[in-house]
Design brief:
The structure holds 2 protein chains of 2 kinds. In chain A, 57% of the residues lie in helices and 15% in strands. By secondary structure, chain A is α+β, with helices and mostly antiparallel strands. Among the domains of chain A are: 147 residues, 2-Layer Sandwich (Beta-Lactamase); 228 residues, PPM-type phosphatase domain (Phosphatase 2c, domain 1), CATH 3.60.40.10. In chain A, α2 packs antiparallel against α3 and α12 packs antiparallel against α13. Chain A is elongated and about 150 Å long. By secondary structure, chain B is α/β, with parallel strands linked by helices. The termini of chain B are far apart. In chain B, strands 1-2-3-4-5 form a 5-stranded mixed beta sheet. The mean pLDDT of chain B is 90. Helix content of chain B is 41%, strand content 32%. Chain B has a single domain, classed as STAS domain (Transcription Regulator spoIIAA). Chain B is globular. Classes of the chains: A alpha+beta, B alpha/beta. The interface between A and B is medium-sized, with 27 and 17 residues.
Chain lengths: 725, 115
């Protein structure tokens, strides 16, 4: 049972092959019966039917072939090998069949049964198997023809196949109608005669002639598709050369030999046509390929090197991506160099343009000490020449050249030397060397090679530098981000609660690290300290001073009660660390609930906007003052005034930085104190929070479309109406 | 924005530095270099004429602070003159008039250097 199932599966798996084979078996049996009974048309009534059966059989096989790997593979060397093997099999089949069925029966009388049977078997085997192998070989050529395929490639290929098929059809039609083939004598110079001949030949012959012209066109369009040759390496070309010589020999022999003992015409008219046309292709293509390879051989070495150059450059390209450590790049560079230039030793030297000094880099087959010694103990004529002229140099006889005597025995015998500068956009950073033991070991090609290699090397180094820089930048950005977070934490996270005062505030730095600072902290029950400050400059330094300011003010507030005293001591502390050209403006104030007094001092900071609810008056308070860091010692205490306000319900105090008063619009006008006072006055009835919001949006409307140049900070304090009660 | 320009002329023994345009973080180093050049020649009597200056930022103010110590230690001074109202207001807020002599006219200032 399993046997039968297997067989059925086998049938299912190869329906085309098996039905083809069955058809051929049927035809062969028919032929055999005809031969043995010496009668014709016994099983197959018409000869045309036999021809059609054969064509059908091969159509099935050909369909199967187009699905095979042989037809679809595009690996050139593999395809050539397949063609060679198939050609060998084809020739062997022919020879084997000849020696089995024809040669032993030579002495038998003509028309004897045995001899006829032998001839028939030979015909069937060579006719059927031969055609099959012919088709396989032709299929294997597809991969070669379609190399570097163009739109015309497929058209020409299909055109050729169409001609093959059309030619079979015409031959069968001729065969059926028994029309005599009429020779057309083309060389005739008389056009009319030729025309007469064509007319006499009839339509079928005429069509055959036209088809022949197309056939020649498509044949040549296909046999010259040998572009794959260029892309083979030297070794592959040599291999392909003898393989095609052999293929040509085998196929030519087969095409010529067969006529002696076997005429395909006797076996099948359809196959005869196929063989003729395939023959043309199968003999011509190997011949053209052979000569084309021969033609390309002298340039093969150059081509090989170019290929190697590309692949080495590719490898360097990979190192660029993978290696960011310059040292590792150097090691890789000298390790790869002997692969593209045949050299014994290779090394890198770095050049420092500031000190004009050379130092050893990565080495291959030589030690760094040897190079260091050579640099230290010579005038470095060659090295300096290369750096000065930015040119690669070839020394053919190192021993005879006085200028390069330090290289003569560098790391062993050095007969020839090759050196090229490594140039980046910042100038020459080093030199790459290759030496060989023999003299005249390098040629001009090697110089070009080393130069382009040096270019890649410089790219690699430059890339490594860029990667390093971008990593550094990324790290800095991260740290900036951290600094920004820390700085934001210096500002009050939550406004303190006070029974007497409402508080509103707003702060927005212009850059990641601003210079504005404000703070509010409770010193006792409802006793509130208020700080607003602007550190000159922005960025990291401003952020540091801000932190220092916060620390000082916070601790001093708990020691001293006087704003002036606190600012004076603060100035002493900060003057220690502030650089000469930096300063900080601060306004510091303390609110005492028991007396309802607000006492403040202004160390160079913006005025304090004050709205007196009792007098319904808006004013800017500018007591005398000096910025922190401007002067050391007692000068600040002497200049700066302390001012005390007696607060009443609904009074409003607005602290701000110059980011508000100097906010600029597109016309480059300042927002100014006037506008600020106006917007405060208009909103004094609102809560502190709302006033802060109104000021902020008023500034926003004013600068609309213009970038924010400076940090903006704002703090609004409003005395509650029913405080205490 | 208009750029920043410096023009220094020696008048009698005083180096008169006329500045105009915008003196901010981007241009402060130009003035710094100018002061560097003047002081390195041994000239410490510097008069800065603000007539053409439209704007000064804290970085610009820092330049004066950076040099005042050196100049005064060498017996010289940095004096200022012909400031427009806006610029003077900034100087005044900071308390600069307590530290630097600021004059209305250049002549007055040069005269003062003679004392």
């Amino acid at each position: 049972m399993p046997n039968i199932t297997n067989k059925i599966n086998f049938l299912k798996k190869y329906p085309y092959t098996i039905s083809g084979a069955l058809i051929f078996l049927f035809v062969t049996i028919n032929d055999l019966v005809e031969t043995l009974t010496k009668s014709v048309f016994l099983i197959i009534p018409f000869p045309i039917l036999r021809e059609l059966l054969i064509v059908l059989g091969f159509s099935l096989l050909a369909y199967k072939i187009t699905k095979s790997e042989l037809f679809n593979d595009s690996n050139v060397t593999k395809q050539i090998k397949s063609i060679l093997i198939l050609s060998l099999v084809l020739a062997l089949t022919y020879v084997a069949s000849y020696f089995l069925f024809v040669s032993p029966l030579k002495d038998y009388p003509k028309d004897s049964m045995i001899k006829n049977t032998g001839i028939l078997l030979n015909e069937s085997i060579v006719g059927l198997l031969g055609t099959y192998f012919y088709l396989l070989i032709f299929a294997a050529f597809r991969g070669l023809i379609f190399f570097k395929q163009k739109s015309s490639t497929i058209r020409n290929y299909l055109g050729f196949i169409f001609c093959l098929l059309a030619s079979i059809v015409i031959k069968l039609v001729m065969f059926q109608f028994n029309s005599e083939e009429i020779e057309i004598n083309i060389p005739s110079s008389d056009f009319v005669v030729v025309w007469e001949q064509i007319k006499n030949a009839g339509y079928i012959q005429f069509t055959d002639l036209i088809l022949g012209v197309f056939m020649i066109y498509f044949l040549f369009a296909n046999v010259f598709r040998v572009w794959w040759v260029t892309h083979l390496t030297m070794k592959q070309k040599l291999n392909a050369l003898w393989q095609f010589a052999l293929i040509f020999a085998l196929l030519t022999l087969f095409a010529s030999f067969k006529s002696e003992s076997f005429l395909i015409k006797d076996f099948s008219i359809a196959l005869e046509s196929l063989w003729q046309n395939l023959n043309n292709f199968l003999v011509l293509y190997p011949l053209i390929a052979f000569f084309y390879i021969l033609l390309q051989l002298p340039t093969a070495r150059v081509f090989d090197r170019k290929l190697k150059e590309i692949s080495t450059l590719h490898e360097i390209g990979r190192s660029i991506l993978l290696v960011i450590n310059p040292h590792e790049i150097g090691v890789k560079v000298v390790k790869l160099l002997p692969e593209i230039i045949e050299c014994k030793r290779a090394w890198l030297e770095f050049y420092d343009s500031k000190t004009s000094k050379f130092s050893s880099g990565a080495v291959e087959n030589i030690t760094r000490e040897e190079i260091e010694i050579s640099i230290a103990n010579s005038e470095n004529i060659l090295r300096n020449w290369i750096v000065k002229n930015n040119k690669a140099t070839l020394i053919n006889e190192v021993a005879k050249d006085e200028r390069v005597k330090e290289f003569k025995n560098l790391g062993g015998k050095a007969g020839s030397l090759l050196a090229a500068p490594i140039e980046t956009k910042n100038g020459i950073i080093g030199i790459i060397y290759a030496t060989a033991e023999g003299e005249f070991a390098f040629d001009s090609e090697d110089v070009t090679m080393l130069n382009s290699y040096a270019n890649q090397v410089s790219l690699a180094f430059e890339n490594a530098k860029l990667v390093k820089e971008s990593l550094e930048k990324e790290r800095l950005e991260q740290e900036f981000q951290i600094a920004n977070t820390v700085q934001q934490r210096l500002l009050p996270q939550k406004l303190p609660k006070n029974n007497f005062l409402e508080i509103g505030s707003f702060s927005q730095p212009a850059t990641e690290l601003g210079g504005d600072y404000y703070d509010l902290f409770t010193l006792g029950k409802d006793k509130l300290a208020v700080v607003i400050a602007d550190v000159s400059g922005k960025g990291a330094s401003a952020a540091f001073y801000m932190a220092e300011l916060k620390g000082s003010v916070n601790s001093l507030s708990r020691t001293y009660d006087s704003p002036l005293k606190i600012l004076t001591v603060c100035n002493d502390v900060l003057s220690e660390s502030l650089t000469k050209n930096m300063f900080i403006t601060v306004t510091y104030g303390i609110f005492k609930p028991e007396t309802m007094e607000f006492c403040f001092a202004r160390a160079g900071h913006c005025p304090l906007a004050y709205f007196s609810a009792e007098e319904q008056k808006m004013e800017l308070l500018i007591p005398k003052g000096l910025g922190l860091g401007l002067a050391k010692g007692i000068l600040l205490e002497k200049i700066t005034e302390e001012k005390t306000l007696k607060l009443k319900p609904n009074d409003v105090l607005v602290f701000y930085t110059d980011g508000i008063s100097e906010a600029k619009n597109l016309k480059n006008e300042d927002y100014g104190d006037e506008r600020l006072l106006k917007v405060i006055e208009k909103n004094v009835k609102e809560s502190a929070e709302v006033i802060a919001y109104k000021i902020r949006s008023d500034v926003g409307v004013f600068i609309k479309g213009s970038p924010q140049y400076d940090d903006i900070t704002l703090m609004v304090i409003k005395v509650k109406e029913n405080y205490g009660s | 924005m208009s750029g920043f320009k410096i023009d220094t002329k020696k008048e009698e023994s005083v180096s008169v530095v006329r500045i105009s345009g915008f003196l901010d973080a981007h241009t402060a180093h130009e003035l710094e270099a100018e002061f560097q050049g003047i002081t390195s020649k041994g000239d410490y009597k510097i008069l800065v004429n603000f007539a053409g200056l439209d704007y000064i930022s804290s970085a610009g103010l820092g330049v004066f602070m950076g040099f005042i110590e050196l100049v005064r230690e060498n017996g010289g001074d940095i004096k200022m003159c012909e400031m427009n109202v806006k610029i003077y207001k900034i100087f005044d807020l900071l308390g600069f008039p307590n530290l630097y002599e600021i004059f209305d006219t250049q002549a007055e200032a040069i005269e003062k250097f003679k004392d």
